[in-house]
Amino acid sequence: MARVIPLRDDLPTSRPPVLTVGLIAANVAVFLWQVLGVGMEASVAWGGLVPARLLGLVPPPDPAGLPAVATLLSSMFLHGSFAHIGGNMLFLWVFGNNVEDALGRPRYLAFYLLTGIGAAAAQTGAALVAGNRDLLIPMVGASGAISGVLAAYLVMFPRARVLTLVPIFVFIRFVQLPASLFLGLWFVFQLLGAFLGDGGGGVAFMAHVGGFVAGLLLVLAWRPRRRARGARAAAP
């Protein structure tokens, strides 16, 4: 999900991040099913979100696959590679626990799923504008939903510190970055990728942008009236 790698933040939680751990476990279990069970290609054909299919323009690539609308959810739990799921789950672990703690588990789960759907809608809209091949490329991954989680973290904990691994050619540096800087730069990279292209890397940047924007809108409406935990990080 990014060119730099977050390792941990400095905000404790008041309760165990049960739901975040559960989401990670669910994603890993589905990925193992993909790799050890039906295979990557078949699993993506079965549950990946194909914009043209969602819009009713083409039949499903796998006649036994899920209904098109169901792929809005199934695609969030499918991944394309070990690096894909590894990066996504790392971001979810670092940033999801505090968002879960602040929103509460039921609201956090709804938030996660709704921002994932928002991400899928954004990617589908972008594919419709681009047309042709983009409409037929299946989208999989939790990145869109996690992008929403990042937006919530940015709003609620902008002054948290994130220990970040920064690769510089063959060198590696560890730096402490404010969450506002880390996540702001992350979002800029997604915008650049969405509007300049990913160079054939197969990254659904518009889904990241859509999930992030959906997360911003939802967290502004849903965040607790009381000051979120980590008051030092969230204080003006």
Features:
236 residues; mainly alpha; Rhomboid-like fold; three-stranded antiparallel sheet; 9% strand; disordered C terminus
Summarize the structure.
The protein has 236 residues and is mainly alpha-helical. 59% of the residues lie in helices and 9% in strands.
Helix content: 55-70%
**Main structural class:** mainly alpha
List how many beta strands DSSP finds.
3
Adjacency order of strands in the biggest sheet: 1-2-3
Beta content:
5-15%
Order of helices and strands: EHHHHHHHEEHHH
Quote the CATH topology: Rhomboid-like fold
Q: In the CATH hierarchy, what is the architecture at level 2?
A: Up-down Bundle
**Largest sheet descriptor:** 3 strands, antiparallel
Cα shape: globular
How many individual domains? 1
The CATH homologous superfamily is called Rhomboid-like
* C-alpha termini separation: 28 Å
Provide the gyration radius in Å. 18 Å
Number of helices: 10
Q: Briefly, what CATH class?
A: Mainly Alpha
Mean pLDDT comes to 88
Unreliable spans are 227-236
Describe the structure.
The chain is mostly helical. It has a single domain, classed as Up-down Bundle (Rhomboid-like fold). It contains 10 helices and 3 strands; from the N terminus they run βαααααααββααα. The protein has helices spanning 18-38, 40-47, 51-54, 71-74, 82-103, 105-130, 143-156, 179-196, 205-222, 231-234; strands spanning 5-9, 161-168, 171-178. Strands 1-2-3 form a 3-stranded antiparallel β-sheet. The model is unreliable at 227-236 (pLDDT under 50).
